[in-house]
Amino acid sequence: RLGWLTATSRVALKIALATEVMTWPLSCASQGIFLALVRSWGDAGLDRHLREVQLLYSRRRDLVHQAALRLLSDVAEWSAPTAGMFFWIRAKACGARGVDAVDLIDDLLAAGVAILPGCCFASEHGELSASSPCAAFRVSFTLIDTAAKADLAMERIALVLRRNADSGCERGAVGKALASSASGDVEAKRRQVAKLEASLRLLREQIEKAES
């Protein structure tokens, strides 16, 4: 993510200090490349590029949304995103216990789908805390460039949700059924998820310090 603003030096300094603890900027090399492109394109060229990017990702979003309508409606709820690059999917309850997306991580990784559970975005001051069960999870659609890929992704998510429902939402119940020779890749994805969750916790702490 990259952007810029026009402001007085005093305001710009305050924003710069805040972003140092609230966001991770792009590398200096990436920022330099983008600056060179903007200078070369001009306003008209940048606007044209942004419209092309918007069209690209809106088409990929639509592929996933249409696949979800066909394959996921009986086990989950969602809304087609109007901004951003992620779907926010909420698993429908199965049994009295309900669904916690954290319990789905291993099973979905075994099926080849990486998610970020909703608890990672919870506020300790809101209705949902980071330790509360949350049936929602986030998945990206940016790499889905064909209808076949969209169908495969939604089929895998639907399979995990259905099998978890059949097993009473027991943690890891589907992972055993879907385990394959790709266990090394699954372990790597688990580590990536764990690192990301740790980063989110650190970010929350930094934001709280900046606000105090």
From TrEMBL:
One of its GO terms (molecular function) is transaminase activity. The keyword Signal applies. Gene3D superfamilies: Aspartate Aminotransferase, domain 1, Type I PLP-dependent aspartate aminotransferase-like (Major domain). This is Aminotransferase class I/classII domain-containing protein. Keywords: Aminotransferase, Pyridoxal phosphate, Signal, Transferase. It comes from the Eukaryota. Its cofactor is pyridoxal 5'-phosphate. Residues 1-18 form the signal peptide. One of its GO terms (biological process) is alpha-amino acid metabolic process. It comes from Chrysotila carterae. InterPro entries: Class-I_PLP-dep_aminotransf, PyrdxlP-dep_Trfase, PyrdxlP-dep_Trfase_major, PyrdxlP-dep_Trfase_small.
